[in-house]
Amino acid sequence: MVNVASSKTSAPKKKRSSGGLKKHKPSAYNKYMSVELARLKNEEGIQEHKERFQMALESWKAVKDRDASAKSSGGSSP
């Protein structure tokens, strides 16, 4: 008689790459940076990622500040 437990080899369990966590929707920052980095790479011809990222970050700050001031001033004028 053959022992079933000894004839099977237990393979290690595979881990999920995301750690089992649900993926969240990208934030406005994530979306903006993705588009802006691609635009800078294609239009400006800047080769260094670090330089493109710095420019995109400065642009994001300007957009964020502009939106914040528009919200605090009451939005559109009557």
TrEMBL record:
Residues 22-61 form the YABBY protein C-terminal domain. Residues 11-26 have a biased composition (Basic residues). Residues 1-10 have a biased composition (Polar residues). It comes from the Eukaryota. Residues 1-27 are annotated as: Disordered. InterPro entries: YABBY_C. Pfam families: YABBY. This is YABBY protein C-terminal domain-containing protein.
